[in-house]
């Protein structure tokens, strides 16, 4: 399968940007490759080439956290995707949306999301937030807050949106 058509090359890169944008969480090379290969969107070698080119052009970032490497879509990648989104068919994006949602559920089950708080002193609570995947702590965040109410709200929000929040924190730290 040779790709001499520039439009086809661009569409494949847009497809990769779209997938990563829809996941809303950082993905390892293995997770990303497995997702693309399971659906037969492109072969392994083209996928790795395109990922490298997207990183080189700053549309994706390949970042490390505790010895694990993750892909994240950058603002430049999101802007490019938004501008050229219409080049991906509605049928393809609908299929991808469903497949991403299913895979996200599987990935989330593999993650342990922990949120707890303790009272330290009067008007001082320590909130402990964690995301653990395959016995590897991806993030361990401790916050001091001034009320039980804030501590509970933070814990509830973390339990609800931890993968997305984790992705945003990583993205903010590496910009």
UniProtKB/TrEMBL annotation:
Gene3D superfamilies in the cross-refs: Winged helix-like DNA-binding domain superfamily/Winged helix DNA-binding domain
Family matches, as InterPro entries: DUF4364 (IPR025374), WH-like_DNA-bd_sf (IPR036388)
Pfam families (alphabetical): DUF4364 (PF14277)
Protein known as: DUF4364 domain-containing protein
Taxon lineage: Bacteria, Bacillati, Bacillota, Clostridia, Peptostreptococcales
